[in-house]
Structure formats: C-alpha cells, structure tokens
C-alpha cells in the first residue's frame, strides 16, 4: 500500500548565506576592535563597549535574519526568519519584524523552477549545487539540493501549482538526482552499449543537466531522438530539455511536430509562448485561440490571452472578458486563484478612480525604502570605520562617528516604515 502524500512540511534553511557571512565578519571585526582597547576600567573603555554593544546585537540579528523557517502546506508558502521569531516572542508586536516574513497563497506563486550552477565542484560526490526556487519576485524560497525536505516540498509544489508554471527537467520529475559516480556509470553504459534504450539516454541527459553539464545533456538528447524519432514521449522530453537549455532553434521544430501529431492544448500554449518570445504576437494569439477551441475548459489559454491583450493599448476590456471566461471554466485551484486576483486588479485599475495614482505612490515608497536602507547601512559602517581608524575618539557619543550612526539608524528606521507602506 502506498503511503499518503504529505500535505504540509516545515523546515529551516539558510536563505541568505552572504548576509550570514557578512554578519559574522562584522562580529569578528567588532571583537577585534574591543580587544584592541587598553585594559582597565577606564571611562573611555566603558564608553567604547557601550557604543559597540548595539552594533553587536544588530550583527547577531542580521545573522539570524539570514536563516528562515519555511512552511509549505495547503494554504501556500510561508517564510519567517529566526530573527523575526525572536523579536516576536520578546516584544509581541508584528511591526518590529515587518519585512522579515512573508506568506504567499498558491495563487501568488508565479513559478517553480530549478537554478543549477554551471560550475560544480569536483569535491561534490552525492548532490550537485543547485536550488529549487518557488515564489514570486521579491518573495522567494530557495531550497538547496540535498536538503532533507527537498523531495517532500517538491511533491507538495507539484500538487498545488499548475503544470504550466513548473519549470523542471521533465513533466514527471520527482526530485531524484543521481550521484556523480552513478552518473559516470550511466555515461559508460550509453557509450559502450549501442542498444541502450532512448528512455535510459534521456534519464542520463537529465542527470547531466542537474550536474551542470549542459552541452553533454544536449548531445545525449539528440542521440535519444535519433533512435526513436516517432516516439511522442521522447519528442516531448526532447522539447522540455531544449526549452530548459534555452535552445529555441531545436525546441521549436520538436514542438511543431508535437502539435501536428497530438494537438494537445498545452502544446498549443507552449507554441504560443515561443511565438511571443520571438515577437510574433498575432501568431501567439492564434495559437491560444486554437487551444481554447479544442478544450472548452481551457482556463490557461484564457488566462494567457488576457495577459497578451492587456499589453496592447485599447484592448483592456477584451483582456477582462478573457479572464472572466477563464474564471467560469477554471479547474485547477492555483490557476483559479491567479485568474481571480488578476481580474480584480485590472478591473479596479479600469474602473476605480485614483487606483493608478495609489499604485504609483506604493511603488515609489518601495523604491525609496531600498535606497534609504542602503544609505543607512553605509552611514553606520562609515561611523564604525572612524572608530576603527581612530580608536581614541570612541567616547560614548563621539561627534562625527555618533552623528553618522544616529543618521544611519534614522534612515534605516524610515526605510522600514516606507517598506511597510509600500509592501506589495
């Protein structure tokens, strides 16, 4: 009996290794600064410690902010940093950790894809360097290969996200990654056994892709297709691989053959995407209309038609009509939620006075929060630099260094306030 598929998973991961490394480096520098002070209970030494202590606490919080607790379940994806958990338990106020946490409903997830490093260290034997990335711009969860909850999270994502928004090595990929010695054995089998089936060659090419050897993966897929050119499953795997590699010259002919042989709505949608990437908007719209005619419940075709029409001036009402048809015919919960959010947003944009100006102000606040935050960090580091090069001036409130620290802190607090008001 097969075990039931999990509905929720919770785990911790390092979301920002650069932030954690930078915070630890800052702690080391502060420790060196304190150890360089003259011994004895002098007022200058006490003032130096009192002035550096807030920076030590800030560096610790920054390091904890780079570690996330992620929850993936039926409601969506939630991420909260360890720093936010600590602040929330101490102060019991959500305002103090705004911006450190986010929650995405499934309708807000724009893509689930793999990010694979082209350089793979020769010391890695079991798992390549790469990440499973899920979310929307600015709110992303990156699960590294080899994480204990990787395959469980992938199973939930495959079940809750529409297949069109999954960019994986194959349509049925379940997260299995062969080790480097196993891949070497698979390659030897392909080279020395001329009767190797196409399915095994395709699996070997997929393993090469995951290990960052893109050129060898492309050559293996060419070999697999040459063995069984009429097999639609091999042809489908070939198209998915070439699309994943960004080789449009080989992906488009394969997709055209799939469209001629099986006329599936998803194939027509993929062809429309290729036409759109090449700037052929008319052909893209025709393919989407064909997909909608073949499958009267094709919610994806109506969603993409609306996205295509809304980019053209004067066709906003037509885009709303397409999204409304998609809402009436939607079957997948993820796409139903995305259609609903898109339809309501653009309907308010067309019908509600002042909506556009409000959106402009929100984007401006978001941009200024990033600028002020960067400026505040620069001023705080500048004040610390003065104490580093001129240790004798590290009194409780030195004039230049203290002013830089005060101004930088004020800018960072202002950035936090603007970030909350401009948060998407």
Describe this structure in words.
The protein is built from 16 helices and 8 strands. α5 packs antiparallel against α6 (198-210), α6 packs parallel to α8 (232-245) and α8 (232-245) packs antiparallel against α9. It is an alpha+beta fold and 424 residues long. The model has no long low-confidence stretch (mean pLDDT 82). Among the domains are: 9-161, no CATH class; 278-351, Alpha Horseshoe (Serine Threonine Protein Phosphatase 5, Tetratricopeptide repeat), CATH 1.25.40; 355-421. It has a 4-stranded antiparallel sheet. A 4-stranded mixed sheet has the order 7-6-5-8, with helices on one face. The protein is globular and about 80 Å long.
The assigned structural class equals alpha+beta
Q: Helix share of residues?
A: 55-70%
Beta-strand content: 5-15%
The side-by-side strand order for the widest beta sheet comes to 1-2-3-4
Average pLDDT over all residues? 82
- Annotation field: number of helices: 16
Distance between the termini: 45 Å
Q: Key terms for this structure?
A:
four-stranded antiparallel sheet, single chain, alpha+beta, 16 helices, four-stranded mixed sheet, Serine Threonine Protein Phosphatase 5, Tetratricopeptide repeat, globular, 424 residues
Outline:
Helices cover 62% and strands 10% of the residues. By secondary structure, it is an alpha+beta fold. The protein is globular.
């Amino acid at each position: 009996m097969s075990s039931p598929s999990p509905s929720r998973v919770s785990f911790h991961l390092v979301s920002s290794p650069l932030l954690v490394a930078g915070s630890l480096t800052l702690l080391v520098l502060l420790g060196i600064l304190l150890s360089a002070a003259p011994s004895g209970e002098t007022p200058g030494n006490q003032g130096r410690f009192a002035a550096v202590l807030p920076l030590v606490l800030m560096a610790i919080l920054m390091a904890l902010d780079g570690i996330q607790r992620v929850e993936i379940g039926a409601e969506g994806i939630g991420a909260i940093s360890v720093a936010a958990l600590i602040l929330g338990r101490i102060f019991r106020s959500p305002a103090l950790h705004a911006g450190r946490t986010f929650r995405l409903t499934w309708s807000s997830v724009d893509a689930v894809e793999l990010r694979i490093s082209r350089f793979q260290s020769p010391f890695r034997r079991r798992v390549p360097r790469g990440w499973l990335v899920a979310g929307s711009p600015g709110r992303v969860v990156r699960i590294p290969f080899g994480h204990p909850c990787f395959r469980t999270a992938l199973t939930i994502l495959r079940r809750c996200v529409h297949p069109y928004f999954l960019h994986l090595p194959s349509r049925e990929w379940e997260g299995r990654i062969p080790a480097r010695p196993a891949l070497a054995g698979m390659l030897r089998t392909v080279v020395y056994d001329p009767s190797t089936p196409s399915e095994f060659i395709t699996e070997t090419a997929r393993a090469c892709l995951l290990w960052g050897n893109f050129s060898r993966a492309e050559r293996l897929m060419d070999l697999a297709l040459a063995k069984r050119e009429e097999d639609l499953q091999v042809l489908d795997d070939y198209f998915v691989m070439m699309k994943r590699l960004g080789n449009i010259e080989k992906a488009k002919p394969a997709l055209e053959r799939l469209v001629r042989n099986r006329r599936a709505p998803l194939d027509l949608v993929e062809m429309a995407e290729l036409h759109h990437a090449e700037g052929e908007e008319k052909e893209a719209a025709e393919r989407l209309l064909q997909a909608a005619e073949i499958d009267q419940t094709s919610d994806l075709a109506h969603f993409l038609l609306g996205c295509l029409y809304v980019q053209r001036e004067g066709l906003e009402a037509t885009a709303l009509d397409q999204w409304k048809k998609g809402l009436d015919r939607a079957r997948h919960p993820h796409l139903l939620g995305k259609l609903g959010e898109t339809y309501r947003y653009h309907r308010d944009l067309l019908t509600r006075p002042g909506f556009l100006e409000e959106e402009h102000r929100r984007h401006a606040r978001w941009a200024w929060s990033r600028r002020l935050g960067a400026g505040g960090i620069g001023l705080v580091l500048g004040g610390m630099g003065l104490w580093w090069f001129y240790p004798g001036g590290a009194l409780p409130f030195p004039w230049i260094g203290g002013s830089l620290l005060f101004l930088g802190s004020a800018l960072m607090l202002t950035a936090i306030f603007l970030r909350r008001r401009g948060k998407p």
